[in-house]
Amino acid sequence: MPFSDSPNHFLASLSARDSELVRPHLKARQLPQGEVIYSAEDTIEHVYFPDTGVVSLVVGLTSGQFVEAGMLGRNSVVGAAAPLDGSTALNRAIVQVESAGATADTAVMKRLVKESETLRLALVRNDQMASAQTQQVAACNALHELEERLSRWLLQTRDLVRSDTLPLTQEFLSQMLGVQRSSVTLVARKLQEVGLINYRRGRIHVLDVEGLHESCCECYAAINGHFHRLIGWTPDENAHGRRAAP
């Protein structure tokens, strides 16, 4: 039986045969905000298929700072490279917004991709997508203003949690964007003053989605373009892997 009703895009996109291969090996898992799924140089022992929440891929520096290189959720797989002989983590995966989904042992997935070329190719495309997103975010961090980056980041998070209310603290935002908290405070205040967001008590409420689109840089559309081209996902896809009705 295929995963046609799975909230996770990867699982929902599998063929009936690949669904039957994977299904017996999935275990439900819930992850609280701040949970580290793996750190750089760890052996990735489990592949994670989120149904809800957001997982950030972050790069650590010797100063102790971390900068986000990408984010994944219901649209993809965390650790897609592991069954493809890429089981050593290149970065840290940390839960940005409380998440629930399913996991499978990397060793099992390695065996399954040897049995199914289509399953292997699906993981390859998701790994390519994560790489494309990482490269786009690197360019964004280097060239775009903080207001544009924050707006892009809020829109991406909103797409994954499917809510206008985002449980995010300014401290966490500053860590993910690699800037001082005071800088985030100033930009968030500006967005609030022009009516795009409302921030209070560790939650950001998006008030004007179109306004955030105008405020963000080209990277939001570029990242979504990578997702659509490589794995067929778009932000307006509903919770069961299908495009929302117009």
SS-derived structural category: alpha+beta
- The outline comes out as globular
Would you list the SSEs in sequence order as H and E? HHEEEEEHHHEHHEEHH
State the CATH architecture of the largest domain. Answer: Sandwich
In whole angstroms, how far apart are the ends?
29 Å
Let me know the CATH homologous superfamily of the largest domain. Jelly Rolls
Average pLDDT taken over every residue: 91
Number of DSSP helices?
A: 9
Percent in helix: 40-55%
The CATH class of the largest domain is identified as: Mainly Beta
Strand content: 15-25%
For the largest beta-sheet, the strand count, sense and barrel status come to:
5 strands, antiparallel
Could you name the CATH topology of the largest domain? Answer: Jelly Rolls
Number of extended strands: 8
Q: Runs with pLDDT <50, length 5+?
A: 239-246
Task: Tell me the number of structural domains.
Answer: 2
Return Rg in Å. Answer: 18 Å
